[in-house]
């Protein structure tokens, strides 16, 4: 079992992370709603940002509720009528946010890179147009990937009898068991494929922008340095997406590949890493989007002056 100091740290971390995640994701939602109220249509990246914020809020709330149940009512976590839909919905939201991040990187790659290959030209012309219409099918596909958890997930429960004949509460130790073939297949479709899309998009974008920046710097074209800096910021944002994607994919695959136990401290640590995902993603989006960053900074300064 985790020591008391570990639980205090985990609870404090969870509260701060949940509050930060809610603020960042709500900020993206507010920016999108303001655009809609002024009669503006959300372009594909703004729409993806909006959907990502909604999914992250739902995912964060679900993860927090699981943590509260784990602390206050752990026996409920091992009831099949509860843990099956809970795991299925959690996996659906995780896979959906992974795929949304992947398509966001694909969109950036298509709009930033200047490649004359026929397939790239066709993708640049069609994917941004039809991407908003693909989002409902993307959500349905993630749900179908997670649906087999109804038959492939089980729980092994160990009941500890009262000690020395006393009427002490009976402690429940539960271990989740996932069928390896399903977990490997679902992880490949839900994690590995979007990761490959992110990797290819980022490598293509970084290499294209690097060639462009080097060519402009060696050419007396009068290109402003501010445009060079914008390209460098774009590369940094894409690399941040790649870095945080790697860490969370490894955590997701390792968590569901083993049999997590309620007494294993790794379960708490891994769950806290899961809770970081809905916080890190909007943070990267806001810092990498000049419009959102300016709006966020301006509002923050306004609140500081009011205080």
UniProtKB/TrEMBL annotation:
What InterPro entries does the database record attribute to this sequence?
A: TAS2R
Q: Which Gene3D superfamilies match?
A: Rhodopsin 7-helix transmembrane proteins
Transmembrane helix recorded as keyword: yes
One Pfam family here: TAS2R
What membrane topology does the UniProt entry give?
Answer: Multi-pass membrane protein
Compartments where located: Membrane
Asked if the Swiss-Prot or TrEMBL record annotates the protein with the keyword Endoplasmic reticulum, the reply is: no
GO CC field: membrane
Q: Molecular function (GO) terms listed? A: bitter taste receptor activity; G protein-coupled receptor activity
> Which residue ranges does UniProt annotate as crossing the membrane?
6-30, 50-76, 82-110, 130-151, 181-209, 230-250, 266-286
Q: Which UniProt keywords apply?
A: G-protein coupled receptor, Membrane, Receptor, Sensory transduction, Taste, Transducer, Transmembrane, Transmembrane helix
Q: Which domain of life is it from?
A: Eukaryota
Q: Which family does it belong to?
A: Belongs to the G-protein coupled receptor T2R family.
Kindly give the PANTHER family that the UniProt entry links to this protein: TASTE RECEPTOR TYPE 2, TASTE RECEPTOR TYPE 2 MEMBER 40
How is this protein named in the record? Taste receptor type 2
